[in-house]
Specification:
118 residues, alpha+beta, two-stranded antiparallel sheet, 5 helices, 4 strands
């Protein structure tokens, strides 16, 4: 079958005939990609290759498709985690020692500073 879309004619296009309700046709994303047609969703239109500016073409070619698996976090190294846990415990102990009543002995707080403490 031949297909007319946006004033363009495509010959011998394989089609699946089905009841689509109020829709005349559904164009698949694979077909759109093969024809290099972009969807302008905001303006509800198709953007054909010859309608695109050189800047849009350059921007499109400079885009890099990144595989989804790159987003997966690698498993953490248990030795690194143990080391981080040791550091955390060490810092917590230091903070606890600084906040203990014994560490405050001998510290003189000037009267001005006392009035601001709650």
């Amino acid at each position: 079958m031949h297909l007319w879309v946006g004033g363009r004619r495509f010959l011998n296009v394989p089609m699946l005939l089905a009841d689509l309700g109020s829709y005349e046709m559904i164009l698949g994303r694979v077909w759109l990609a093969e024809k290099e047609v972009w969807l302008d969703v905001k303006n509800r239109r198709l953007v054909w290759p010859e309608e695109r500016s050189p800047a849009e073409e350059i921007a499109n070619k400079s885009q890099v498709m990144i595989p989804r698996n790159i987003l997966k976090r690698p498993a953490s190294n248990s030795e690194h985690q143990k080391d981080a846990d040791r550091w955390d415990r060490s810092f917590e102990q230091e903070i606890a020692q600084e906040e203990s009543p014994q560490s405050r002995k001998g510290v003189v707080v000037p009267p001005k500073a006392r009035s601001h403490r709650l």
